[in-house]
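Standup notes
- DV: blocked on the single-chain target, sequence here:
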Amino acid sequence: MKIVKCPKCGSRMNERTGKFGTFFGCSMFPTCRGTLNARDAALRTIEIEDRSEDETDKLRKRIRSPSVPKVSVDSPITKLSDKCARPEAFSLIRYKIDEFSPEQTAVLDYYDKDVNFVLALPTGAGKTICCEMFMAHSLSIGKKAAYVSPLKALTQEKYDDWTNAFHEWSKKKSIILTGDYVLTAKRSKELEEADIILMTSEMLSSRVRKVNSEKSGFLKEISTIVIDESHLLSTNRGSALECGLMKFTLINPNCRIIFLSATMPNVVDMCGWLTMLNGKKTELINSDKRPVPLEVHWIPYDDGAGVDKNVAKIRKAQSIINEFPDDTFILFVHAKAMGRKLYQELKDYGIESEFHCADLDRDERQRIEKAFRSKELRIVIATSTLAYGLNL
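- DV (later): unblocked, structure below
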């Protein structure tokens, strides 16, 4: 089946006849007013394989349907059993732990089922093992599994974990695809042969747009796709992930989608949306139980008359660092300029730190992360490059 894609929004275009003859108009009119003449439309024609026109239209209608279930109350907390399974209950990966958590035990009933899944669990509740269960099942039946996160650092961390000699997946073919890696012909071949594919949200969006032009056929072979930090759908970076998932399910409607999040407020809405994307039932585990309690302390600072507020913040941060000389610190800043200023101020006072931001190349970012994990580095200043899900 051949369709014409809109140059503005990527939606399907319909052939129309107007005052000046035949042309193609975006099917999302009037939201999108993209148009093409017949000659240009021919250049944007793409082939959609393995699906009849009726099936494609039904799927598009389901995606665009406004009938996502609305909830007026907080999403219900899942009641979990106090009985925890032994790791031997899961045979696809040998975990060196005494027992699974209640959340991980509940996943044992679903990891091999043809369902989507939303895991809304606090930080430290064991979401990684849960997603590994779903991925392991796909790998066991000879299919590919994919992991998607919003950050290069988080994607790299999972790649390093799963290719480490101590992990059973180190013998699998894993490949990482972020903006740090050039998509050469060799890497394209590796993608086709890979068992586990790790991407950033933006890279998923890019791959699905270029599924035919750059031969990203591997997308059709993915059986389970894990979306980490999925609550970012509601942020200014969420559009890339949202569009990427919608296009991905058109290419591969048989793939299971697994959402992981520690702070997703509207989990029931997300379950309804995932079911509309690929037609699969979506199961949910929503828990607020924290293995390690989270403490939040608001520290006031005095930005007295004539004192720049950023200077006041830096002075307060410095005093807290000096107050706890044996502790490690991550100092998050809202902008690179503030980060550089904080770094210089600490340096002037003889306090060693490193500034982790997107300006650094991959090797330099990894060096800082490794030094902080090993306690060689006590203080890291960071922008959002370390803000989500990284184990530090």
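- Follow-up: The first strand starts at residue 2 and ends at 5.
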